[in-house]
Amino acid sequence: MSKRRIAITGVGATTPLGLTAGEMWEGLLEGRSGIDKIQSFDPAGFPCRIAGETPAFKVRKHVPKTYRKATKLMSRDIELSILAANDAIETSGLVTKAAGEGEPTIDPERFAINMGAGLISCDLEELAPCVAASLTDGEFDLKKWGTEGLNYMTPLWLLKYLPNMLPCHVGIIHDMQGPSNTITCGEVSSHVAITEAAQVIARGDADAAMAGGCEAKVNPIVLLRQCLLKRATSDHNGTPDEACRPFDAEAKGSVFGEAAGLVVLEELEGAKSRGAKIYAEIAGAGASNSLASSYEHSETDGKGIEIAIRKATKEAGIDAGQIDLVVPHGTGIPADDAAEAKAISRVLGERTAEVPVWPIKSMTSNAGAGAGSLDVIATAMAISEGKIGAAKNFEQPFDGCELNISKQVQEVNVRYALCCGYTFGGQTAALILKNTNGEV
After folding, report:
1. Whole-angstrom Cα distance, residue 358 to residue 347?
2. pTM of this prediction?
3. How far apart, in whole angstroms, are the C-alpha atoms of residue 171 and residue 177?
4. What are the structural domains of the chain?
5. Would you tell me how many other CB atoms lie within 10 Å of the CB of residue 188?
6. What digits encode the pLDDT tens for the residues 179-202?
């Protein structure tokens, strides 16, 4: 990155496995799935009727009393982000305007925030009256929509659905006045957001940053699109915990869900001086783009993923021989898993059969822009705790998959770990995390 080294000192997550990163970690080690029948709307008629939904919560209980009026203008994505941010701040031990006791331990003007966000879909209950008022003889009338339908829309409606509202609310609550940005790059949004936040600290424009991403994909419109693209599995509506099967020969598609994942990044020496727990160091990052002719899938040779990984290892100053763990994107979509497996295998070379690979979406679901942050958090905690769990639902690799998929809970001594991701729009990204315990 630069002369300033960047550490992960806090982890926060709101996932189908629980409302904290600690609960997610416990679930991952237990091999517990957060995927179940959809509860937030009636999925009858959908080929896929399962998703990863978080446990119930009331966002009003997670914001300062003086900020509760603002919860009326929060989309599901914003709500999930607030819980994850609170968790990340708490685990970091930092004091902010809204967390901890005493004066803030980081100058608000030196506290940045960078978040990945997805396509925040509207609640159908909000749109239904507008559409109903825009019908002429049973058909949608665009002119009537403009003259009558929009009158049923609250004037502040858009403030719930702008992607930059996620870091705005979190930043206001915790008084983060440093550089802020929002990344909208699909499933690699979190990877890129964490990379950019690390770069902000590395170049001296901040001393700490909140970074990660969130997306709530449990929405009829979102699910319908994935079903039409044949990316969502329809084979396990009766056995949802068996549905998502990354890299498995019986995989039939992905399961989508909702989640937020955020990490606190700090300049390493500053974090050490205040006695912070160091989960891992951000050692390198890379990104690329390689759009396939069939846009709903990754390119078949995984070249874009490979480029991103090689850029990340180069920036970290390491070779494949120093990677001890891979947490891949692994969605359970056969064509995409095959492309990713090829890319990882080419990078690892002769160590492919040796390095453990731990896909987690079979338990967390595919949360779009939030997915990469969960991978990074799982990786950081694996480095810190010295263990990884089993890849749920992995029984037999598909033909041609040579990856060493973790089949049981195991202790690991990680020097460097790789997280990589891709979108079906062709964007790819990778992060290298380093173990700083004893400067291995």
Report:
1. 16
2. 0.96
3. 7
4. 6-121+161-439 (3.40.47.10)
5. 29
6. 999 999 999 999 999 999 999 999
